[in-house]
Amino acid sequence: MRIVKFAEDLKEFLRSRGVRPSYVRLKVLQYLLTEKTHPTAEEIYRALVSEIPTLSRASVYNALAVLSEAGVVQALTIERHEGRYDAKVGEHGHFQCEVCGRVYDFSVDFGSLRHEALEGFLVKRRDLYFRGICPECQKGGESHGKSG
Ligand SMILES: [Zn+2]
Ligand SMILES: [Zn+2]
């Protein structure tokens, strides 16, 4: 495996985005790049604290704030009560399953969206959230994911 190289690349990447590559920031970014489940801050904390016993929730929240601010990760507001995070920052849509709570990526041609009423507005961000039931859950099979 190229773990070390990967970590070095991430450091360089963060520096290039003007972010000091602290240990926690690297770990959080690494987690988001490998687990593409759009985890919440709490899920990230729980996943990392076993590896980093001194980790605090605040440091995870701070790291996410810094990474979001730098555009390295994006915060999703697909759920009202809890933010989810995504290391895939290009424009894409998100579908959340109401049964298993999973969040799926899908590609969208944002350029084809019509929004003439926004002529003269400066659009800084476009989010597209769909909700429904994923194919797995439609099958009515056993639970395969975590519940919300
Ligand atoms: Zn589902
Ligand atoms: Zn996504």
Describe it for me?
This protein starts with a helix and ends in a 10-residue tail after the last helix. The mean pLDDT is about 90. It has five helices and five strands; from the N terminus they run H-H-H-H-E-E-E-E-E-H. The protein has helices at about 5-15, 25-35, 40-50, 55-70, 135-140; strands spanning about 75, 85, 95, 105, 130. With about 150 residues, it is α+β, with helices and mostly antiparallel strands. Helix 2 (about 25-35) crosses helix 4 (about 55-70). It has two domains: about 5-85, Arc Repressor Mutant, subunit A (Orthogonal Bundle), CATH 1.10.10.10; about 95-140, Dna Ligase, domain 1, CATH 3.30.1490.190. The strands form two sheets. The protein has a three-stranded mixed beta sheet, with no helix packed on it. Strands 1-2 form a two-stranded antiparallel sheet. It binds zinc ion (2 copies). One zinc ion (ZN) binds near residues 97, 99, 100, 102 and 134. This is Transcriptional repressor. Keywords: DNA-binding, Metal-binding, Repressor, Transcription, Transcription regulation, Zinc. Its cofactor is Zn(2+).
